[in-house]
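Minutes, project check-in
Item: structure for the 255-residue chain
Input as provided by the requester:
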Amino acid sequence: MISKTRANFIISLQKKKVRDEEKLFIIEGDKLVKEFLSSGTCVKILVAKPEFIGSLTAKMRQYVEEIEPASYEELKKISTLKTPHNALAIVPVFNYTSELYAVKNLTVALDFVQDPGNLGTIIRAAAWFGISDIYCSNDCVDVYNPKVVQATMGAILNVRVHYCDLKELLNNAVKNAIPVFAALLEGESVYGHELGNNGIILLGNESKGISEELHPYISHKLLITRFTNAKYGVESLNVGMAASIILSEFARRQK
């Protein structure tokens, strides 16, 4: 049985302030927990139904510091989901050793992306198309928000997500002759524009787009061309979809 103190601690990790203080975050779901364990990621606490615990291999178990058996009702009380899965785990935040502004190859930068689902989708797309790093402005949604983690479906294990001053990042890119591609309505079709094997792909806020203060750093303006004359419900793509399309086109033309 989970103690009240432990249950309250796990619930408190739904708040960014507590995650930042404790350097821990929540993952949920049978598949997601097993993805983390299979990758060799340390799990501080695993709270799960006995049948899930019994399904773990010996190799998976060696990455778990503490196992707490729980009933469905107990999991429901601490879960961030309406319908909890069989397992929930507490994991240390990732400690990246890479130099913050050492941009190499192709990289994604996100300006004030607020929707957890969008950030999760972008991380999944980045992992799929071979992008290792994403740089977020400091006002982006927290990558360890449970909804973001859930939306990544485990892709967070393959992509390093940094938070930084984007002006500093882009200014450094310009100084080092690194191209900055941006998704803009006044851009040239991504399907006809010359793309490269390196650079920064800049994507903006869901409703406001890219901040005006970042426009001077943009060297290539890209547009995702519409292939329809439909008037209703297709004024734009959300930033997660836009990222997937642009990354796909870059990947398709990689040399």
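Outcome recorded: The first helix runs from residue 4 to 12.
No further action items on this chain.
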